[in-house]
């Protein structure tokens, strides 16, 4: 499964960068989201995956008695997911707003400031 | 002493707030500051002439050996007196010269800033603080040259001057750091005691070159001289003060200060003789071809600075003595000539010497000052200039090598300088007064008095050389590491070769003055050679440099996001790929890997299909939906591998994102095909390469042992310390609670941004483009 996950990560990275290289703003955002997912999975994989042992201490004890998944990567990823949502929502609204003003989705038509155009 | 230096800075700051009171009649009061400082420094004369050295140290950054330490010896005293003495006269002169100017207060602010910086420079005993003051003089010079900031030529000259002297300052810093690392101290006094260690160091030449570049740029030596004629765009008080009497001598000061450290080495002496020699002859010849009075003076100033560098290079006791006297001589007569030129310019509005004449009828005191200064500049007895010239000749005749060439060069220079002095000091006042100038007003007292004072001092010191001998000249020589106690300044030394050379100089010079009149024709002739002058070469260099940097910037900062991404990704792939190819074995321990179950495989297939569909679909809505599928598949992977919190978060966030996307983007137009096939293939290859690299990287990391210390700590203490059983939650809200709080703040900011973007009414920007 680790190898499969590594391949998935590679695909997500490749797809993310490919989308970021497109001229459409919407594709750019999709690319960032895919890349973010890839990065999350990478952290998850490198923290070593464990099956069926969530890092939750059993009801009756104070410490873990059996093996458990490493909680640190999970905490990191949780933060990353939430932050990336902040980024995505702002970016999506910004695209909408930009489209309303300049009437284009093409990045190349946006690379001039007000003064130049 | 610190207070004396800070006084100028404080006054400059004071003027920022009270400037408007100093624009009018009160302006003259500013002259009290240099006057007071002059009196203060003059009070040290008895102590210094008896051989004392006064030093004061204030700690500044002791950890780096940077102190505000000041040392007043003969050399510093001479410069301090020049700075404050001429400063006083220039301050007073300015009150009349720029009377009623809108920014007179600003001008005084810059002047006193400069004065303070210059005092700091000549009094600093610490190389780093010397460097700081050095730079401050460059900066205040920049503001003063560009004072007429509505004139493009003036701005350009200011920039050139700043560029050249700033380059020199940079070199000074490099030299200071190098010297500091050789000697282990930044204190100049301590370096003096390490002469052998510094001369023996393998970095000796490099350190000397750095100091040379600093001194040559500041003191306008060939080939860095061209900023000085340009700096004449400044108001005349500035030319008088900075660009003839004080700032341009900072380089001379630096060389003199380091003579006891670096001196007596062939490289030091030869370079100084050659550079000084070329400069003095080159610019004395140049002076012949000028018609602008200030141009003549500028080139003769450069020439005089060349003589000083040359004398320091000779390095004998006689040469040091000559240099010390010549600094005084030059400061007195050149400042006078500049002041006189300023008066002529101010009253008639003309500086073209071919159009001036007969002004003695209108401004007699100025004419007297000009003629006296010309006499001193020519070295005609009984002026102090005569003393300077005699000493210079004597020093040159005792040069060790190439004596004949050196003597010819110096005599030629002196002849030409005599001509320049006469043109600037005598020519405007003799002959017939042109019709146009019949109604010129005589200048005010405040303008001609400073010129007269300086000119008369130039004669007075010549008749009574004992006035300056033990008070100023000999302490300077002893600061340079030579002993001059057995020497006496006198006008008459008997009939000898030196006297003969003096006579030849004066005779030929006066003959030349009557024979060769400055004319526009001559000026245009030299203009034809302009294209090979250091000035135009530098200007072309700067031009091509900015063309090149514009090109370079456009290549790398071209404003296209995808080019940046491409560059970054390409770099990453090549670099990481190179390292991995050098170490190609990816060890996978198959026993440690977990098995793949059927439903896991199904999820993986769905995920990969989702990714491909997202990338290749033509419909935006389908892409967003497929992206949602990818997110949900990842969510399932989290579920399989013991991360319920992640699964929940991923699920809700993914859903929210998709909803937001659909709501917002519903109205956007269809995807357009914006790229051609070739571009897509190129991007595809690049992305695939990155994907492969990341994939291999992940596998390689997996083969390495991991450290679970941190995770174990949280797991052990989650319940005991934080009383929570879900370890991930405990980390987020307890152990790293403040981080989470910050994260919430970021989200809040994003939310405000989104709200703002939604509610913002586009009034000004809503115009159609």
UniProtKB/TrEMBL annotation, chain A:
Record localization = Cell membrane
| Membrane-protein topology | Multi-pass membrane protein
UniProt KW Ion transport keyword:
no
Bilayer-crossing residues are: 6-21, 28-49, 75-95
Keyword NADP attributed: no
Main location class: membrane
Q: Which UniProt keywords apply?
A: Cell membrane, Membrane, Transmembrane, Transmembrane helix
CC per GO annotation: plasma membrane
What InterPro entries does this protein's entry cite? CPA3_antiporter_subunitC, NUOK/Mnh_C1-like
Q: Which family does it belong to?
A: Belongs to the CPA3 antiporters (TC 2.A.63) subunit C family.
What is this protein's record name? Cation:proton antiporter
Q: Where does this protein come from, organism-wise? A: Salegentibacter salarius
TrEMBL record, chain B:
Concerning Pfam families, the annotation shows: MbhD, MbhE, Proton_antipo_M, Proton_antipo_N
Q: Which organism is it from?
A: Salegentibacter salarius
Query: Which residues belong to any copy of the NADH-Ubiquinone oxidoreductase (complex I) chain 5 N-terminal domain?
Result: 63-108
NADH:quinone oxidoreductase/Mrp antiporter transmembrane domain: which residues? 124-413
Query: Would I find Phosphoprotein among this entry's keywords?
Result: no
The entry's cellular-component GO terms read: plasma membrane
* MrpA C-terminal/MbhD domain span: 605-670
Q: What is this protein called?
A: Cation:proton antiporter
